[in-house]
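Posting for a labmate who doesn't have an account.
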Amino acid sequence: MSSAVISDISIQSLPTSSFHSIGLTSSTPSSMVNHPTLTITLSDYDINHIKRTDSLATRVNTTYLYIKESTVRDLNMNPSIAIQPYQALSVSEFISDTTNPELESFSFDLDSGLLVIYMSETPNLSTFNSMYISLQSNTTNSFYTLSYNISNLKFLTFTNFSFTLHDADLNEIKSFESLGSSKPNLFMRFTSSLVRDAFGNMVEQRLSSNPLQVSIIIPDTTCPNIIRFSFDLNRGVIMLTFDETINVTSFIAEGLQFQSKILPSSTDFRLTNATATLINLTTVRVTISQVDLNYIKIFSELANQLNNTFLNFSAKSFEDMSGNYLCPEVLLAWNFTQDTTSPKIDSFDFDLDSSILIISFSETILPILSVGNIFTLHHNKSFNSQFHAISDGTAVGGSNDHSNPSVLTIYLIQTDIDRIKNLSLLATSNTTIYLSAQANSLSDPAFNFVQPTPASQFILVANFIPDTTPPSLMSFQLDMNYGIISLSFSEAVDSAQFHIHSILLQSTKSSSTLSHGLTGGNFVVLSLTEIEIYLTMDDVNSIKRLPLLAQDKDTTFLSLLDFLILDYAAINIINIPKDSALNAEVYSPDVTSPSLVAITFNLTSENLTLHFDEIVSPFSLNAANIEFKRDLIGYSILRLQGYSTISTAWSSIVTITLLKQDLDIIKLDSQLAISANSTCVTLLDNTINDVALISNSNTLQNMCVIFGGYFGDLIPPILLTFAIDLDSGEIVLNFNEPVNAFTLNTTSLTFLSSQFDNPGRQRYTLTGGTTNSINGLMTTINITTEDLNNIKALTTLLSSNLTTFLAHTNSLIRDMNHNLIFPISVDLPQMVTLFVDDSTRPTLVLWGLDLTTNVITLTFDETVNPRSINVSGIVLQTTPAIQTAFTHTISLLTNTLSDKESTVVLLNMSTTDSNTLKREKIALTDTSAYITLSSSVIQDVNGYYAIERPPGVSALLVSVFVSDYVSPILGSFNLNLSSEELILTFSETVNYKTLDPNLLKISNDVKSINNFAYYQLQESTVKSTSDSHILVITLSANDLNELKLRRNIATSLSDTFLTGSSFLKDIFNNTIVPVSLLQVSEFIEDVISPMLISFDLDMDTGTFLLILSEVVNTSTLDTSGIILSSFSNLTGQSFQLSGSYHDVSSNGDIVSFTMTRDDLNTIKSIENIAVSLNSTILVVKPNTLLDMNNNPLSETTLSCTSFIEDSTPPYLLNFTIDLNTGVLVLTFDETVLDSSLILSYWVVRNNYSVVFETDSQHQFILGFTFSRNAPSIYIYISRIDLNEIKRKNLCSKEFMREDCYLAYRVDAVKDMNRNG
């Protein structure tokens, strides 16, 4: 044994190759005793080397050995025979490794994350899963389980390997302050699933109860690095990414400095206040304080875009978990988010006393040059509130103020302050001041504009200082020309608190002077700080009476008593005492001429009164300078010639009495001095003077009489004489004074046949009349034709001057001042002065047509005799000319309704004439109705015919036209079910286009039938093509069928009624009178035979579908009248149905039924019938079906329209087998093709099981059918098959003993359509 050379021994995995082989190195013999068996104890190195080599010595067939020559020698020193690698020796016995490996120790480098594992034997690193490792401190409370399975495993020796932890796991471990800080604070625990050895033995686990302490630990001494950062200027957030876990509590804000470039510059900014938040182990969010963020935004070239955003990180800005300071670095931002947030107002202060508005924004704001129309103050949170938009002012601050760049201070102008004070609800306290800003008015340095402030977000003032300064009077002006005092105040004042009586005018500055306190007057607010007082005339005159007061600027002073006015803060104005009166700033003397202010005029007293605005001298009046006019802008009608009397007292009122000739001229003018508005006066220059020392004469002035200052003429006019001309139809009236022709009332005139009352006395009062006369002493009346004709009908009235007398009431006419005329009584009428008699022939002057009442009205210019009418001489036409007109001559059926002499004749038009006009479209509108008369139509009372009106220009267009407003009535109807028509007869011609059959209901009589039923037409149409009083409806097939289906409607006269409304209009669009249960007048029953239109056949189900021309009674179906054939002439094969069927449909025009199975199978057995669409011909006999009126079906031969072939495989219903005769009978649910039978597809067996057993079943071999195509097939079984069945004791028991079953394959047999 001592000669053994162990290093010459090699182990390999294959018998013929040394691809996987290991030579032993440090193994030794286990015994040095000479023996034929050499036992070698493998060293740890060799055995771990073997285990590490893949596929080597894992089992018997991967364990081979070869040796070199002289590996061992015998006792005679003969060398052993070499075993070559290609002839390696297989192991005789192989015992696998069953010992669990152990993890003996580990070391950990916190700096690099390197973990080294020391095993008791070679591990299989492919089974290693680092996620089963948990690192813990000396207590089990702090531990971390690795989250990432590492693939970068590396063998250091056969039993030792290392790997580097994933950065995430390493950072998590560093996040534990007590984990891995020293050797006593780092232990490892793991489950047995951590790793296996080469033989799959799991490592011995180490749980929390016996963790493995680290053998070597290398602490983290490397400074952490900042990898990148991003800056969100919008939110003021810096996102920092480090290369390891950071202790966020170590953050020092002053360690971060913003720079515009990598090198320091004057715009750099070091943070003063910020907070750091750990997002994850290596990511930190730094939130900059608003103060710092606002300061950064001040600089236009710092951190406002990516390329000027640098951060200078000092070492002490951050520490890692081991206390290592950050590696100093200056980095350009990796990502930059621009500021996109609009600034908003955070708060504001308002000092109303000092006119200062201070506004604080959410961020740095750019300075503004103008504050106009940017900010608005409101009194509450509503757009409907009182508000004021700041118009101007000076703004300071913003980004120009580095100490507070988010604040703007605005110094308001006095105008804005005054307007604010003027608003009663605004800025009265700290609860009535809200601020809003306009859109796009001011922005932050990133040019994000302040957004418009909605009402719900108006900002309430934070601090408010109210107005505490009293107002004062700054200056005043006096204008004696217009009587105006103008006051100017130091600030806005409340005009509602203005008291004029507090003003005293003085002649000097001291109190011991002439003075006048104002007694009243009106004032106008010119502006918030200016008021203009309009003095009363009494005050002006009182001032003028004091010769030394207010004569010029030096004699005009003003003092203020208490409570003249308050400002809007209710602060009283500063008083001006009498001994310190304020001198007028501007004085304007009185240079105004006296002015006429009112006029009154009395025609009864003949007086004109003039009212002036100041005292005048009546003796200075020049009447020749006074003119009368109809209105202010018109020309002069009259210039006075003088006056008879005049008032003499000094006054502002002067009264004169007009001369008679001037008064007469005024009365004769119909438009002058008839009312206040038509009484106007012009005073020419120098008509009158005032009473001033230096008198002022009046200037040209126009004025009308004031309201209530006009008094008209009250004397009534009188009728003197009258004349009448019956030929021209005129009456002439003469009065004693001018009258107003427009007030003429002819109905006040009554003519009488005698002066005194007697039994034969006739009278007539006019009903109308007109005049063309102008205002004056004479008026001419044009008598109406009606009045003339009525007078002519009275034979004794106005026949001569002796029978012509006149009376009138006081309403006949008025004078120019609307005085009613003096009346003439019928008891003492006035006789005519001049009389002219009548001599005129009658003429048709107008005519009317009333199509509602069918009345023609003829109106003549004089009385005619209606009994002389000849209606055949009357023609109605559509146009004047006969060549282009449609005409109709009135028939003799039309008669007169008049029996008394009159100018009007009424004709009752016959129904025939009315319908003809409507049908022919004659005289249906007021523009298409003309009348012509022959020369002998009618006579007047003296026997003279009316003047002829031939066609053409003499044809007369209708004057009064009344359209037809009478609704048509359905008088009767007929129903013909054979011609399929509904005939309607109406009371008049109707519009056929408006007939809607679908609004008609045909029903039975609800009174005589208990079960009332009806049907409403749906698809019927109008057959008529022209307007008429008779219309025909063609009933649709569907409507006919629906009627026929209802056995209690429209079967006879007694059950056929019609109901409907709004189904028709006449030619004038009048809707028909609703029809309710109108019984048919004539009823013709259905005598037409139904016809078969088409048919479908479904051979799969045996179903026929018959489409018929009308509904039929399916209870009369007799299928024996149906013949199926392959040819239309029945020369081919055919089959007549048996007459039996099932599943027949209900009554209708579509009938379906299913043939009996016998009929269906018989048809299928005939190979050439009903096998395709072309081979399916149907012949129906009359006895096949009856319609609802028992009319037989018309005999018809048709080809099939739709054919569905048989697609259902045959189904075996039952079978019989006769073991004596060898006959097998198969019965199916349909006809099968006997030639399609494949007997070898059939198996007889003694059970129902699907398990194949040779001795319990037999597959048929030979046999033949001896039946034709039918539902049952008869088969002779061969002797071989019979013997086998008997031998296997199949089907040997009695009936129903369940030992005889038949099984078959697909396509064992097929039906006639080859369905298997």
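Reply:
Got it, the structure tokens are right above this. The first strand starts at residue 9 and ends at 12.
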